[in-house]
């Protein structure tokens, strides 16, 4: 039985959607037990009937979604659902943590409470991005856990994201590209130039070279490696642009009768596109490089997104991803 | 009479579209003279009738669009249309340069041939991005001229982009945001933290704080300041995503009869959206911080895009932007 700790208070629609997602998950997988961390009274409001594999771990506090200083929040809210789940993961009481709470807080809790694997220089946040190719997803690593990067971190990102892609997403021989300002070797700042060499020198990585921002969602590669600063900028640019284009489309369609008629006809097609580009179909972002799987579900997660994040956590646990990462990097050092 | 040097050999559709764009420009503006730099025989093929304000400056060479090492290309192709135009701009023979040639080569030619203003630490490439707000554009500065940045460069980018926005695009009191991984002060790497303080301390800049990648094209600010590395990544992520979303839309529409019917009805609306999001309606990217206006038109520029880039160059010359930039930074030093 895999024990998954779910931060029931994290996310824009908590605790309702996390609780509903927990029910969906236990129905789907009979080898998991879910511990709901959070305010018991609040959680109970949304629990249909008792379930033998869903338990509540009462916590008094909640980390707000808009915290400014993540590291301080982790110290301040010691009895919060997020910190408590991370503590229990570190102690081995649970096997993985899923939270739709504040990203910065979860990265801090993952790093400071679950703690970094000693072989990993810096943890990295690895979201799975939808692409325009059907059923093709691309992992971005790092999307913002470590802003100030060194070449060695980028190299490790390539290494650990490859293991994650192989074990959890079942991608054989995942291809890896380095986010850069041009496709030729020798592009970018010293950081990218050095990282390029390190990644290329490791034959266990299926490295295909540099990749520009313009092909982020074209589905050409399985993994895009970046420092946390530019990875975060790029990911948000992609998400924001996609959202902006659809809102512009909606605005233009709704401003005329012709537009409204066309929109009505195309409704099922627009829904399909929306579904294809929807991150919640894929699951959450995994914080790689800490001692237990920590999954960040999108802040706006509905129960489906939570269920998918739990599925991901279950997969990471059953495939023993954490030990495989630690072992791969240990071999590297020896 | 303003003398604009046009690289007739630069761009995917050269020399045809540059030559046609030159004709459109002289018809629109009677105070400009255009010098077409390039292979005379090739250029003449696309010249309708002779025009007293369009002249050819014959150059033997052409810098290829796919050069790998821009600085070396500039030294190697001394008699290329791009380098010759830049030399003449430096010598004061012409007032500005417009080229749709390779971006890296034009940045190198601008920096090494037209040369940096002594008050400017590093030149910056400033494209004008369409946004989802009607008739609202946002300048990105720097989009890739200087990958390895220092806080002082970002501060200067804020300063010179403000002058450009005011003088050439006629935006009163342009608002400036710093591209970052979060909106709160204190976010980002040391580079952004230091740059934030420098920009904030200058009361001549209408600084509104940090901005995330997700609002790049929402049209909230007039200027986004970035280092060349992350600016380039973000710009290409925006352009690539917008293109990807439209190609996904097209694919889905064309895959069913329902889609085709809807597409037919919505054709005029889709055209309008495309036009709104089309960068060629706006003009090119200006290389700020060199001794004469240098405008980079998009590689895929048609005659309209070239004409708009010429319009921009004319405006930059007539408003004496180069001297205003140099003066503003000089006052700063004193």
TrEMBL record, chains A, B:
<comment type="function">
    <text>Catalyzes the reversible formation of acyl-phosphate (acyl-PO(4)) from acyl-[acyl-carrier-protein] (acyl-ACP). This enzyme utilizes acyl-ACP as fatty acyl donor, but not acyl-CoA.</text>
</comment>
<dbReference type="GO" id="GO:0006633">
    <property type="term" value="P:fatty acid biosynthetic process"/>
</dbReference>
<keyword id="KW-1208">Phospholipid metabolism</keyword>
<dbReference type="InterPro" id="IPR003664">
    <property type="entry name" value="FA_synthesis"/>
</dbReference>
<dbReference type="GO" id="GO:0043811">
    <property type="term" value="F:phosphate:acyl-[acyl carrier protein] acyltransferase activity"/>
</dbReference>
<dbReference type="GO" id="GO:0005737">
    <property type="term" value="C:cytoplasm"/>
</dbReference>
<dbReference type="InterPro" id="IPR012281">
    <property type="entry name" value="Phospholipid_synth_PlsX-like"/>
</dbReference>
<protein>
    <recommendedName>
        <fullName>Phosphate acyltransferase</fullName>
        <ecNumber>2.3.1.274</ecNumber>
    </recommendedName>
</protein>
<keyword id="KW-0443">Lipid metabolism</keyword>
<comment type="pathway">
    <text>Lipid metabolism; phospholipid metabolism.</text>
</comment>
<keyword id="KW-0012">Acyltransferase</keyword>
<comment type="similarity">
    <text>Belongs to the PlsX family.</text>
</comment>
<keyword id="KW-0963">Cytoplasm</keyword>
<keyword id="KW-0444">Lipid biosynthesis</keyword>
<comment type="subunit">
    <text>Homodimer. Probably interacts with PlsY.</text>
</comment>
<dbReference type="GO" id="GO:0008654">
    <property type="term" value="P:phospholipid biosynthetic process"/>
</dbReference>
<keyword id="KW-0594">Phospholipid biosynthesis</keyword>
<keyword id="KW-0808">Transferase</keyword>
<dbReference type="Pfam" id="PF02504">
    <property type="entry name" value="FA_synthesis"/>
</dbReference>
